Amino acid sequence: MSIDEYGGGQRPQADVLVVTTNDVPGYEVKQVIGEVFGLTVRSRHLGSQIGAGLKSMVGGELKGLTKTLVETRNQAMERLVEQAKARGANAVLMFRFDVTEAADVGTEVCAYGTAAVIAPRA
After folding, report:
1. With a cut of 70, which residues of the chain have pLDDT below it?
2. What pairing do the DSSP bridges indicate for beta strands 91-102 and 27-42?
3. Residues near 106 by Cβ (< 8 Å), separated by ≥ 6?
4. Which residue, among 39, 107, 51, has the nearest Cα to 75 in the 3D structure?
5. Which letter does DSSP use for residue 67 in this model?
6. Domain at 90, CATH number
7. Cα gap 103→92, rounded to integer Å
8. How many domains does the chain have?
9. Domain that includes residue 88, residue range
10. Alpha carbon distance 42, 31 (integer Å)
11. What is the value of pTM for the model shown?
Protein backbone atom coordinates (compact mmCIF):
# COMPACT_ATOMS: atom_id res chain seq x y z
CA MET A 1 0.00 0.00 0.00
CA SER A 2 1.31 3.44 -0.85
CA ILE A 3 1.12 6.40 1.49
CA ASP A 4 -1.15 8.23 -0.95
CA GLU A 5 -3.63 5.36 -0.91
CA TYR A 6 -4.42 6.18 2.71
CA GLY A 7 -3.98 9.92 2.26
CA GLY A 8 -0.84 9.97 4.39
CA GLY A 9 0.65 12.97 2.63
CA GLN A 10 -0.51 16.48 3.45
CA ARG A 11 -2.79 17.92 0.83
CA PRO A 12 -1.46 21.11 -0.68
CA GLN A 13 -2.97 24.17 0.99
CA ALA A 14 -1.55 27.04 -1.06
CA ASP A 15 -3.12 29.72 1.14
CA VAL A 16 -2.30 28.26 4.60
CA LEU A 17 1.00 26.57 5.41
CA VAL A 18 0.68 23.96 8.17
CA VAL A 19 3.88 22.91 9.97
CA THR A 20 4.74 21.03 13.15
CA THR A 21 7.65 23.36 13.93
CA ASN A 22 7.72 26.63 15.89
CA ASP A 23 8.91 28.57 12.87
CA VAL A 24 9.43 28.27 9.12
CA PRO A 25 12.96 28.62 7.72
CA GLY A 26 13.25 31.76 5.59
CA TYR A 27 10.09 33.30 7.06
CA GLU A 28 9.38 35.47 10.06
CA VAL A 29 6.27 35.54 12.20
CA LYS A 30 4.61 38.93 11.74
CA GLN A 31 1.60 38.23 13.97
CA VAL A 32 0.49 35.43 16.28
CA ILE A 33 -3.28 35.11 16.03
CA GLY A 34 -3.74 32.32 18.54
CA GLU A 35 -4.95 28.76 18.93
CA VAL A 36 -7.04 27.19 16.19
CA PHE A 37 -8.48 23.72 16.01
CA GLY A 38 -10.54 21.38 13.90
CA LEU A 39 -12.60 18.72 15.62
CA THR A 40 -14.57 15.73 14.38
CA VAL A 41 -16.02 12.57 15.89
CA ARG A 42 -16.61 9.49 13.77
CA SER A 43 -18.14 6.11 14.40
CA ARG A 44 -18.10 2.92 12.33
CA HIS A 45 -21.21 0.94 11.48
CA LEU A 46 -21.85 -2.33 13.31
CA GLY A 47 -20.88 -4.58 10.38
CA SER A 48 -17.45 -3.05 10.04
CA GLN A 49 -16.88 -3.18 13.81
CA ILE A 50 -17.67 -6.91 13.82
CA GLY A 51 -15.35 -7.44 10.84
CA ALA A 52 -12.58 -5.50 12.58
CA GLY A 53 -13.08 -7.57 15.73
CA LEU A 54 -12.71 -10.81 13.79
CA LYS A 55 -9.65 -9.50 11.93
CA SER A 56 -8.01 -8.45 15.19
CA MET A 57 -8.16 -12.05 16.43
CA VAL A 58 -5.99 -13.28 13.55
CA GLY A 59 -3.76 -10.23 13.26
CA GLY A 60 -2.95 -7.82 10.47
CA GLU A 61 -3.91 -4.32 9.49
CA LEU A 62 -7.50 -3.26 9.96
CA LYS A 63 -7.77 -1.52 6.59
CA GLY A 64 -11.34 -0.30 7.07
CA LEU A 65 -10.46 1.34 10.37
CA THR A 66 -7.27 2.80 8.89
CA LYS A 67 -9.27 4.35 6.05
CA THR A 68 -11.80 5.82 8.48
CA LEU A 69 -9.08 7.31 10.69
CA VAL A 70 -7.33 8.89 7.69
CA GLU A 71 -10.61 10.41 6.48
CA THR A 72 -11.31 11.67 10.01
CA ARG A 73 -7.80 13.14 10.32
CA ASN A 74 -8.14 14.90 6.97
CA GLN A 75 -11.52 16.36 7.93
CA ALA A 76 -10.14 17.68 11.24
CA MET A 77 -7.20 19.25 9.40
CA GLU A 78 -9.49 20.86 6.80
CA ARG A 79 -11.54 22.39 9.63
CA LEU A 80 -8.34 23.68 11.27
CA VAL A 81 -7.27 25.35 8.01
CA GLU A 82 -10.75 26.87 7.53
CA GLN A 83 -10.63 28.35 11.04
CA ALA A 84 -7.12 29.72 10.49
CA LYS A 85 -8.14 31.35 7.20
CA ALA A 86 -11.28 32.83 8.78
CA ARG A 87 -9.08 34.48 11.43
CA GLY A 88 -6.70 35.94 8.83
CA ALA A 89 -3.80 33.51 9.18
CA ASN A 90 -1.61 32.25 6.37
CA ALA A 91 0.13 29.64 8.54
CA VAL A 92 -0.48 27.24 11.41
CA LEU A 93 2.59 26.59 13.55
CA MET A 94 3.13 23.79 16.08
CA PHE A 95 0.44 21.65 14.43
CA ARG A 96 -0.59 18.49 16.31
CA PHE A 97 -3.29 15.84 16.42
CA ASP A 98 -5.04 14.49 19.49
CA VAL A 99 -7.01 11.25 19.12
CA THR A 100 -9.29 9.82 21.81
CA GLU A 101 -12.15 7.41 22.13
CA ALA A 102 -15.45 9.28 22.51
CA ALA A 103 -17.67 7.48 25.03
CA ASP A 104 -17.20 4.10 23.30
CA VAL A 105 -19.23 5.28 20.30
CA GLY A 106 -16.54 6.71 18.09
CA THR A 107 -13.16 8.30 17.71
CA GLU A 108 -12.57 11.98 18.35
CA VAL A 109 -9.81 13.63 16.35
CA CYS A 110 -8.70 17.16 17.15
CA ALA A 111 -6.19 18.96 14.94
CA TYR A 112 -4.73 22.02 16.64
CA GLY A 113 -1.97 24.57 16.39
CA THR A 114 -1.13 28.26 16.52
CA ALA A 115 -2.50 30.48 13.75
CA ALA A 116 -0.05 33.09 12.55
CA VAL A 117 0.76 35.49 9.76
CA ILE A 118 4.19 34.81 8.29
CA ALA A 119 6.19 36.59 5.58
CA PRO A 120 9.48 35.88 3.80
CA ARG A 121 12.52 37.36 5.51
CA ALA A 122 13.85 40.45 3.78
Report:
1. 1-14, 44-59
2. unpaired
3. 41, 42, 43, 44
4. 39
5. H
6. 3.30.110.70
7. 30
8. 1
9. 4-120
10. 34
11. 0.73
